[in-house]
Amino acid sequence: MTGRKNFDLIKKNLCELGYKVSCFETAAEAAQYMDSQIDKKTVGFGGSVTLEQMGLYELLEKHNQVSWHQRMPEGKSSQEVRMEANAASVYISSVNAIAETGEIINIDGMGNRVASIFYGHEKVYLVAGENKIEKDYDAALYRARNVAAPLNAKRLGSATPCAAEGKQCFDCKSPGRICRGLFVLWGKPMASDYEIILIHENLGY
Ligand code: SF4
Known about the structure:
Strand order of the largest sheet: 1-10-7-4-2-3
Number of strands: 10
Helix content: 25-40%
Bound molecules: iron/sulfur cluster
CATH superfamily: NagB/RpiA/CoA transferase-like
CATH class: Alpha Beta
CATH architecture: 3-Layer(aba) Sandwich
């Protein structure tokens, strides 16, 4: 237990880096807000336990066209759905770690999530429960590699040395390695609007 985190510093730093920042007490409140903001759009989701826990897909798909490989429609391959998500007007992802100094980190295996966050959308939303917040870049990088990635490998049942306990990274050379790319946003990319959603709950890994 880390206790309730104060969002004042991270919000200030993220705003200075060009992001819009919205803070919520609960995942349900954050999901309701996003549902009120995103209407009649094509929307892409990155792979995410956080978004699953928020129930966001079920809200948005009632009045948007949402593509998510965790909700596969009949007759399409997961690759097709990832490509659709990549081409959507709005893209939504969670993060593996976010530093109070403003750096946002994700590790990806397929690459669709990090590629989609970087470029090509009208607006990108990045969602983080307070368990994802660390004090600086080094701590955030450590979290992404040694907390988020092993727990995700365990969840996916990956044939990797971290998956048994999900407690640390062994920097493996396994064919099933899920850590293929490291993605750091140092500031808001120039071409699109970005909004960071911070939530006072522990969400995802
Ligand atoms: S590099 Fe390998 S051991 Fe480390 S977290 Fe990723 S899959 Fe697990």
